[in-house]
Each structure stands twice: as structure tokens, then as C-alpha cells.
């Protein structure tokens, strides 16, 4: 028994309707994905305090002084833990050689934030790396207002902090532009990692103008 099935061709009008429906579905999916990405980004932004209503011709006026201090504390309260985890996951074979930040007893971060900035002023950060005789690993990180700075920022200088004696090993002075980025934690990691990689190459290789010799 032969059965003959005839399929009528789809009319051009129906094809147009199907294409419109598919187009709207694709647009809806695109909007949904973009919304999810935006929601994720906004969630990350909620970690830090911003105030874009204060923009007065200088990016540093995005934050009032209290917000800048809050964001700095938010970054460095967790910095070393996240930093070492970043090294272990991305540089598994050499990460022990990229963590000289842990060779100190104390890292002081002095900040100098203003209530308002003009075109010639910037917020400043001073990273002071200290050693002592009792503990030179897994350092504490302490944030202090620069107005409390009562010693000369000079490597080799002996100081007393919280009744303990320290020697300044290194001082890094920088503006605080990274703190005003969308992802300051990640950018501070890149900042210090760049210095670590430079020290690693300098230590592991003999560099000259005409030669590159591995030690």
C-alpha cells in the first residue's frame, strides 16, 4: 500500500513572520546576556564606594576622602591572601620566587587624600616595607594617614612602630590612581606583580646589552 503525503510549501508571509519571531528571540537573548554581565559588574562595583555626582574636572573628585579611605582598606584587608592565590593559580612553577612581599614583618601604607582636588593635585600613597629581628614573613599591612608619619622615609632608617623596632627596607611612593579604577584589587595585583617579575628576571638572568645568559 503506497501512501502519498503532500506538504504544501510555506507561504512567503509565514516565512517573514518566522524570521521576525526568531529575530526577536535573538534580541531578547542578547539583552538577557548583557543584563547578566552588567549585573555582575554592578555587583563588583558595590564592593567599593563611589560618588560620581562629585565630578569636578578631576577624576580624583569621584570619591570623597572617606570613600577613598574605605576603598583602600577594602583592597588591602584581603590583598596578601588574594595575591598569593593569584600567583599559585597563574604561576604554579615559579610562584615562590614571586612573593617577596612576604619577606617583611610589616608593610605600612600611608595615604594622603584631600577633600577636593584641583588639576595640579593628586592623592598619594607611600608603601613602607619593614623588617625586624622577630618576624619577617606573612607581614601585617597597616594603613595610616600621612599626617601620622613621624619618621624619614629612607631605606635603612631604624624606626619604632607600636613599641616594636623595625628597619625600613624599601619605600615606594605612588599616586593613588589605581584606587580609582573599576577593579582596584586586580590592578594593584598587576602593579606589584610587575615589580616581582622584574626582580625575578634580574635575579635569574644576567642581562647585558649583547647577551642574555641564564644563571
3D structure, described in words:
The chain is an alpha+beta fold and 215 residues long. It has 2 domains: 11-46; 52-214, no CATH class. The chain is 37% helix and 20% strand. It contains 4 helices and 7 strands, in the order αααβββββαββ. The protein has helices at 12-45, 65-76, 79-90, 184-204; strands at 106-112, 124-131, 140-145, 158-161, 164-175, 205-207, 212-214. A 5-stranded mixed beta sheet has the order 3-1-2-5-4, with helices on one face. A hairpin with a 4-residue loop joins β6 and β7 (212-214). The longest helix has 34 residues, at 12-45. The model is unreliable at 3-7, 31-46 and 207-215 (pLDDT under 50).
List keywords for this structure.
extended, alpha+beta, 215 residues, single chain, disordered C terminus, five-stranded mixed beta sheet, 37% helix
Strand share of the residues? 15-25%
Query: What is the mean pLDDT?
Result: 76
Rg, nearest Å: 28 Å
Order of helices and strands: HHHEEEEEHEE
Question: Runs with pLDDT <50, length 5+?
Answer: 3-7, 31-46, 207-215
Largest sheet: 5 strands, mixed
Strand order of the largest sheet: 3-1-2-5-4
Class by SSE composition: alpha+beta
In summary, what is this structure?
It is built from four helices and seven strands, in the order H-H-H-E-E-E-E-E-H-E-E.
Write the layout of secondary structure elements.
Blueprint: H1 12-45, H2 65-76, H3 79-90, E1 106-112, E2 124-131, E3 140-145, E4 158-161, E5 164-175, H4 184-204, E6 205-207, E7 212-214
Parallel strand pairs: 1-3
Antiparallel strand pairs: 1-2, 2-5, 4-5, 6-7
Amino acid at each position: 500500500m503506497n501512501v502519498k503525503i503532500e506538504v504544501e510549501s510555506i507561504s512567503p508571509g509565514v516565512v517573514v513572520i518566522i524570521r521576525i519571531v526568531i529575530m526577536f528571540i535573538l534580541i531578547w537573548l542578547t539583552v538577557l546576556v548583557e543584563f547578566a554581565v552588567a549585573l555582575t559588574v554592578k555587583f563588583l562595583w558595590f564592593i567599593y564606594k563611589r560618588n560620581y555626582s562629585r565630578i569636578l574636572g578631576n577624576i580624583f573628585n569621584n570619591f570623597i576622602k572617606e570613600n577613598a579611605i574605605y576603598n583602600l582598606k577594602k583592597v588591602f584587608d584581603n590583598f596578601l591572601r588574594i595575591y598569593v592565590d593569584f600567583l599559585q593559580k597563574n604561576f604554579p612553577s615559579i610562584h615562590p620566587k614571586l612573593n617577596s612581599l612576604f619577606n617583611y614583618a610589616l608593610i605600612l601604607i600611608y595615604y594622603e587624600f584631600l577633600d577636593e582636588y584641583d588639576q595640579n593635585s593628586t592623592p598619594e600613597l607611600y608603601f613602607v616595607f619593614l623588617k625586624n629581628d622577630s618576624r619577617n614573613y606573612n607581614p601585617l599591612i597597616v594603613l595610616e594617614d600621612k599626617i601620622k608619619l613621624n619618621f624619614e622615609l629612607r631605606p635603612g632608617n631604624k624606626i619604632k612602630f607600636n613599641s616594636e623596632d623595625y628597619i625600613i627596607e624599601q619605600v615606594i611612593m605612588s599616586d593613588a590612581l589605581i584606587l580609582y579604577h573599576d577593579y582596584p584589587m586586580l590592578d594593584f595585583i598587576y602593579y606589584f606583580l610587575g615589580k616581582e617579575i622584574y626582580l625575578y628576571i634580574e635575579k635569574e638572568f644576567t642581562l647585558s646589552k649583547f647577551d642574555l645568559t641564564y644563571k
